[in-house]
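Ticket #4471: complex job returned nothing on first submit. Input attached below:
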Amino acid sequence: MNKTSFFAIQVCLILVFSGALGGVLFFTDVYDDVESKIVEVLCLSCIKLQPKTSKEFTFQTANKKSHPDFVVNTLKNRGPILIQYGEKACAACDNMIDNVIKPYFDLEFEKTKSFETELELENMDFMYIYIYIDDDSTDDERIGSFDIYDKDHITGFPMFTIITIEYDHDGVVKPYYTSLYGEFEQNQDYEKMYETFNELLEFSNELYDRNIVGFN
Amino acid sequence: MKFQIKRLLSQIFIFFSANLGAIGFKTGFCYPFFYCHACPASTSACPIRAIEKSLYDHSFTWKLFIYPFLIIGFFGVTTGRAVCGWACPIGLLQRGTSKIPRYLKKKIPSIKKIGIWKGEKYLRYMKYITFIGLVVATPFFIRFMFTDICPVGVLTGTLPILFLNPGKFVPNPFFWIAIIFFILFLLLIFLVERGWCRYFCPVGAILAPFNKISYLTVTVNKDDCVHCNVCSDVCPMGINVSEMYRDPECILCGKCINVCPKNIIKFERAKL
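Support reply: We reran it on our side without changes. The output follows.
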């Protein structure tokens, strides 16, 4: 190949790469996706760590914003809520779905689609809401709720949030929640994880039944 | 040697730029080099994570797949693998450790053999196998990702998170496997100069072929070469510089240019 044609190829390649990169940045949402779904969040199984988080309930949202409408409406009309936040390429998210959510909650679903369903578990009714951040059809309010309930500021997936209602110190009934992260019991003890869910959901149901009358 | 100080300053500057997340500056770009976005101070995303995420579990998200290739490709077609020599923080780390393998090579004959072993050139293909196998194929087919065992992720993500949040995290089952790979990574870079770049870096595997067509390259005037081999001796990538022509392993560090007694090795831009 002579010098001129090689130079022409190099110039073309530089133009192609810079043009394509500019086009992808300008015409698609990939920049925002990478920022919000890779840079600003952690895949807990990818960092090979497990957060040691408390199961304590709290009224205080993690980013001081108010509870989202879909949570408040569900609490008013249906019951306590279990939200699972998941993302793509997250082994812990998949493990929790395959080993806890599907078998113990007797659910079948496509893990790449956000959805919600009412569940009955050992005489407890609650709403299961699955929020998959890489599903483009998931609305922003639901994705934004991740920051609201990231109680321990881990910003990691998977995260499980259990929300009920309780009287606060001012005597007003308000949403009351806790969040668990990753595969939250030692040694991937899935049965124990289910027991923890069960215990927290039972507690949530009790509070809900006791306080629903005062919740406006 | 002024030139190498410039390169060091460039590496240090880019190291700090890659960690502007520490002051809250986060972007939606992918690094054109190997650095973990799980690092508490990271500014951008690891290109490997973006590729894995685009292909995970029999899926294909085209935007996320081509985005890191376009970023790396842009730097690749303009400066070839110079990113490895001038920008990569892991390259900076290996620059810092490079005196140790050089010393060991002089003192221990078996270590000297590593660099001149006949099969060594084939071992360099490991980085392409790592990239295609663990970054593309296994995430797609069996949901196992390079990220799960990434030693650079341990160094720049896992360990800083543990250090900055004492008592807040415990290891998960993959932790100890990743630590073993991290120890092997350390052994490698202490035994072979730029061992990670030579044999295993998957980002290096994407960048390397661009040396064949890049606008900027290192050229040797072979007609005037006296084959003193000073250039090959200083080359951190173990290239036989006097025989080199657009070598995919060249990281354009310019060490050979600095030592050539005949001044016949040069950075060259493409021209008509």
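DSSP finds 15 helices and three strands in chain B. Closing as resolved unless it happens again.
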